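name: query_chain
kind: protein
chains: 1
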Amino acid sequence: MKKYSIIIPTLNEAETIHSFLMPLQVLREQCEIIIADAGSTDETKNISSPLADQFIIAPKGRATQMNAGAEMASANMYIFLHADTYLPEQALALIQQGLDKGALWGRFDMQLMGQHRMLKTVSQMMNWRSRLSGIATGDQAIFIARQAFERVGGFPEIALMEDIAISERLKKLAHPYCIKAKVKSSARRWESFGVWRTIALMWSIRLRYFIGQSPGDLAELYRQGIFWRR
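structure:
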């Protein structure tokens, strides 16, 4: 049995999935790679299947896809990895250090990859906020021990903010183990919508989530990059 299960939700990632999966191949002696796809209509399946241990189809939505992947996982440690986020060198050894200290879950620091000069500052602010709040985001490559994942019931199957929601549940079990080594995550959404606009949008969505607005409504705003529906 492999020690780690890397669970990757995908939807129409054919353009970049090969370059994303190739660096993970050196980890396969210790890891199984599970693609949890939401029914891609491009070549995602054909490209990624030879580079993964399992390719499964799940209902659309990161939470439902990641939960479906976890159901198929055989390892006792899950690593939930977005298809545009790259693990640092020695990622497994760094996670193991946390496990040796009794960690039940955690995340990496992150660096947004892009050209805008503000992205480094945005990344640092996100890392600081995460350390202070104990909240992890999906872009930080959340890892969770099977026992902890099962105790909190997996990811809440909501349309958006599933990472925030599961962090709140996991915090009741243990504080996250925060790894300073950085995952590198694509800033394509930030650069597409504009960095300052995206900062404002993300704060707006987070605030609305905490005051109880529907995650489904928030997901639609996030998808369109707008602050309200007309």
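note: The chain is about 40% helix and 20% strand.
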